């Protein structure tokens, strides 16, 4: 590539660095130890490869050959090598001043020399597109690499300069830096970077990706593609990426609103068509939440004359198709087409001979959710209150509305708080799983094998084997107790990730992975499984006995991974806090004393109490503080039906009741 430019000799003293040299911002490249071998080689053999230079402000700027230039300057400064002075001429090749591919020339030269810093490649490829008008295809052809590899580098080249600088200074890892490319807006990147580093905390790629998810949805994501047209029609902001598939729909709330509307429309269409009483929608179908719902199923009916005629036609056609499918010479495509036809006919016949009863339709409904990249309908669901009315499980209500009046002294958790507690509990479970790799490995392998080989229902719905990280939303993620996050971060730091190198072919990565010790593989599996565990409250020992027993084994005490703090207590009512202090923790006198205080003061008291139990506590009180958590977050021996908050209302004449 250098032979097409005019040769000339230039004095070493007239050489200066070129601003377009892609190594110019990587000082580690020019450390003495990195160029010592070059200096020794040039001293003995001379400069074997000419420098690529360009005239710049009366000097010759080194466009390619920065390490050789550095070695030459070292030789000039070394009094022992008298043959090298500032006036010593060296061979160069002159690049015309109007050349518009300087970055490409420098990059090509450097790629053929010592391996470049990855950040240099990111910035160089991006500069080639922005300044020189190159495309990923032309860049790939120039450097003999794949378009996919160039695109990968281009995304990272647009990361905020402050974040790239942090990676250069080894303040954050390269993997963490790459995570910021999940969002094309440098402003969003900067805000997340500052928020996550404001207290000097350890920054992880995982926490970066989680934080950026709240800033929007990628257009290539299945939800992004599903709502994009409506989103843009409503004027939703789009953060454009250098590559279209990584652009982001920035208004996450609008995305969810549109998704729920479309799901609601699908549910309503199904309700109308099937005759159900109600329709609803949820982004994700929460099996734990829906466990209390009943379900009705269609029963056999006597078809009318027209329906019976169609059933007879279907029966005759099925017999004919069955004979055709028995032909051993049938090609796979033809066989699959016949199979699909049989399946459709059997479903049609079933619909003609089955139907929901009028009573079931009057109390059941349909919920539409988003699953596997498409709308999924859950039909025939019966709400808990409708099940109760039918079965007469509860007595008549004293409320004129027909609903039971809640116990004035009972703690009832708002839906948002309940969801957040589920998230925190899942985080704690993830930490426990990461700290028990052998047990988690056994669980993961058992889940995988049993799902493949066993028939019927899955042994547990709590973990996913498709290795996709579970998205855990939380209203106040930056205020929660970070013990579980720190434990998971420590587990991540202990992983052997030497095999995980996206510059190597997948087969090579797999070979390196297979060479790991069994213990290292166990840690990797445990970490991956911990990342896919779904949020929930306490397990029901009947509905999910496996996970119920497994959680008791590895997380008998959730407080080893999570501690209540002010962020939690702030979301409790003042009366709840006094009840917890007086009844759950045995601090009745303190509860009476604090009754006249503001909620802010009570929250501060509770926060200090749980952060460091007071020395004045009795052994019983200290044990109660060390073990307390909201009932639904407990593990050992607590099933879902036992986890409901059922604290009894104190007697009216008790001090705590009067104080509350």
From TrEMBL:
<dbReference type="InterPro" id="IPR036086">
    <property type="entry name" value="ParB/Sulfiredoxin_sf"/>
</dbReference>
<dbReference type="GO" id="GO:0005694">
    <property type="term" value="C:chromosome"/>
</dbReference>
<dbReference type="Pfam" id="PF02195">
    <property type="entry name" value="ParB_N"/>
</dbReference>
<feature type="region of interest" description="Disordered">
    <location>
        <begin position="386"/>
        <end position="410"/>
    </location>
</feature>
<dbReference type="InterPro" id="IPR003115">
    <property type="entry name" value="ParB_N"/>
</dbReference>
<dbReference type="GO" id="GO:0007059">
    <property type="term" value="P:chromosome segregation"/>
</dbReference>
<keyword id="KW-0175">Coiled coil</keyword>
<protein>
    <submittedName>
        <fullName>ParB-like partition protein</fullName>
    </submittedName>
</protein>
<feature type="domain" description="ParB-like N-terminal">
    <location>
        <begin position="8"/>
        <end position="111"/>
    </location>
</feature>
<feature type="coiled-coil region">
    <location>
        <begin position="304"/>
        <end position="362"/>
    </location>
</feature>
<keyword id="KW-0614">Plasmid</keyword>
<dbReference type="InterPro" id="IPR050336">
    <property type="entry name" value="Chromosome_partition/occlusion"/>
</dbReference>
